[in-house]
Amino acid sequence: VIYECLTGTPPITAENQFTLVAKLLEETPPSPVSLNPEVPQALSDLVMRTLSKKPEDRPQTALQLHDLLAAIG
Fold first, then answer.
1. Where are the alpha helices (DSSP H) in 1-73?
2. Among 14, 73, 16, which Cα is nearest to 43's?
3. What pTM was estimated for this model as a whole?
4. What is the largest CA-CA distance in the chain?
């Protein structure tokens, strides 16, 4: 949701569910700052971290995400 709020577009789009699932597994969306230069780089980096394919790279709890967001702003 935050990606779409920052960029005006979903991170991945597709014509059907099967293509969407394939894209979710294989593609990395463009960074928010590449679509909206007004997005701070640190926020763009954190959003991309939340979209990581590797679960261990993502914030592990809502509190951790909150703290990371608070540190940015």
1. 2-7, 17-26, 32-35, 41-50, 62-72
2. 73
3. 0.88
4. 38
Distance from C-alpha of 20 to C-alpha of 4, rounded to nearest angstrom:
16
Quote the tokens at residue 48. Answer: 């991309």
The tens digit of pLDDT for each residue in 27-71 reads 999 999 999 999 999 999 999 999 999 999 999 999 999 999 999
| 6 close to 36: Cβ distance less than 8 angstroms | yes
| Per-residue model confidence (pLDDT) at position 35 | 97
* Exposure of 36 in the CB half-sphere (CA atoms within 13 A): 15
User: Do the Cβ atoms of 12 and 23 come closer than 8 Å?
Assistant: yes
Map residue 9 onto helix, strand or coil: coil
For residues 21-25, give the mean pLDDT.
Answer: 94
